[in-house]
Amino acid sequence: MKNDGIHETKRKLKKSQKLTKLGQIIYITCANFMNNNLWESASSCSFGFIFSFIPLSLIIIALLTGLIKLSPDIYQWVLKIVDEIRPVYDITPFLSNLMNNNAIHWVDILLGFWVIWMARKMFLSIMQAMTKIFRSVSERKTIINQLFIFILEFLIVILIAFTIISAFIFNQILDHSFLLENFSDIIPFFITRNSHNLLSVGMYIIIFISSSCIFKLSSGTHPKLSWCLIYAALSTFSFYIFSLFINKFMNLTNYNVIYGTVSTLVILMMKVYFFFVIFLFFAQMIYVTQYFDILLKSQIYLLPTEEEEGLINNLRRIMFLNPSALKTNDNTLYFKAGDLIYAKGEASNCVYYLRSGKITEKCGESIISYTPGSFFGDTQCLLNQPRTGNAIADTEVKLIVFSAEEFKELIRRSPVAATKAVAKISEDSFTQA
Fold first, then answer.
1. 80: enclosing H helix or E strand
2. Alpha-helix runs per DSSP H in 135-186
3. What is the distance, to the nearest Å, from the Cα of residue 403 to the centroid of all Cα atoms in its chain?
4. Chain mean pLDDT for the chain
5. Contact 378, 407 (CB under 8 A)
6. Pairing relation of β-strands 366-370 and 359-363?
7. If we measure between CA atoms, which residue out of 153, 130, 60, 85 comes closest to residue 276?
8. DSSP per position, 345-360
9. CA 125, CA 279: separation in Å to the nearest integer?
10. Which of 62, 205, 338, 367 shows the greatest Cβ crowding within 10 Å of its Cβ?
């Protein structure tokens, strides 16, 4: 039986099938998240943030110096922001020296380069985590990563500085304008004198923009912009909900008693860590979404048999036994009981996945039975050998057919699938011997 032309004319999924696909994406994302050990990567990114937090703050303050000198009001307003991070690091002396210093010394230039170098720590950790996620499909040169880190750092500094300036201007407008007073009761979250709400919103916008850029540019796999925007929005929103939960349910007074002045740093580190956990989870989900078909094929190829018990194995069989997302109008075949699937000696130009029913393959004196969730015909396909037996349908069966190119691509992309294929070839060779 020949299956030379398998086209990707996919059927439109029903609502239940879309929900199943979403569940499969989430499961594969969680599995890859654990396999890539992204919990530790989130720790590295958090540690890098602590190293980068102070240098970035210094860069932003230095960038705003010229503007700050023009108005004492701006200086006082920036001091209020500085007060909020004082438990982490007091940059007031640095700001005062910056305001009183009119000449640039060579030491200042060296310190500036040092600050920029230290601020790269966080972005390097992020790039390493992204490389870990996308390493199987993307190999990027170090110099490109370094250039990307520098550009990203520069853009984030500009965005934060712009947000601070915008928040100050907005507050100044509120202080000197009566036009917005009538709206203060309607939208008090934003229309509040000397409020930091706009600054907070601006920071979340920066997180969203930065996440979108990193998702789009750092992977090297060119994911769709719409995916990057959607997952960046979900990542930002999830972190916002987490921050609300922390602020509402955690009693910071107790931590002040236990940890003293470093309590703010402890809470900051926890928030930063969970931000990167969320961020890397959605980065992993972009990878899964982008390469969903090949990852789904890997899952069904590695599907546990009915004899393999256990909660995780049962869950995998429930989720992946009927991969609707892979079905097309041309690769789904139906056979009645007694029908010949393929005959001995035929060319092995495809691989079969049994969705439902039972099949028996007779290879000389040996008989092999296949149940739902089984791949068959794969050994001969990989070895470019003709079929070694007759495969006959014992009942009504439904099959999904994969071309030799599709199956070999699966083996190339998935080390675990390749391991299983090699083991199966060895087992078949031992049985025939």
1. helix 72-84
2. 142-176
3. 30
4. 76
5. yes
6. antiparallel
7. 130
8. T----EEEEEEES-EE
9. 13
10. 62
Calpha distance 283→127 (Å, rounded): 11
Helices 142-176 and 197-217 pack at an angle, to 10 degrees, of 160
Both tokens assigned to 402: 């994969």
pLDDT digits (tens, 9 = 90+) for 227-282: 999 999 999 999 999 988 887 776 655 555 455 555 666 777 788 899 999 999 99
Q: What is the mean pLDDT of residues 347-351?
A: 90
Residues β-bridged to residue 187: none
Measure Cα distances from 93 to 3, 69, 102 in Å: 75, 16, 16
Residue that has been written with the tokens 């990203």 in this structure = 152
Structure tokens at 228: 């990057």
Q: How far apart are CA 291 and CA 296, in angstroms?
A: 9
CA dist., res. 242 & res. 274, Å (int): 8
Give 340's strand partners: 392
**Residue 187: band (very low, low, confident or very high) from pLDDT cuts 50, 70, 90:** very low
Q: pTM of this prediction?
A: 0.76
Identify whether the C-beta of residue 296 lies closer than 8 Å to the C-beta of residue 325.
Answer: yes
- Alpha carbon 104 to chain centroid, angstroms: 43
- Residue 379, φ and ψ in degrees, nearest 5: -65, -50
Question: 399 and 326 in contact (C-beta within 8 Å)?
Answer: no
CB hemisphere CA count around 426 (13 angstroms): 6
What gap in Å lies between CA 357 and CA 336, rounded to an integer?
10
Percent helix, strand and coil across the chain, each to the nearest 5: 65, 10, 25
Distance in angstroms (rounded) separating the CA atoms of residues 284 and 129: 10
Tell me the two tokens of residue 180: 């917005």
The SS3 call for residue 87 is coil
What is the DSSP code (8-state) at residue 14? Answer: P
Say if CB 401 and CB 350 are below 8 A apart: yes
The H or E element that residue 189 is part of is: none
Amino acid at 183: F
Cα–Cα distance, 129 to 121 (Å, whole number): 13
Got the DSSP string for 255-323? HHHHHGGGHHHHHHHHHHHHHHHHHHHHHHHHHHHHTHHHHHHHHHHTPPPTT--SHHHHHHHHHHSS-
What would the two tokens of residue 288 be? 């899964």
239 alpha-carbon distance from chain centroid:
14
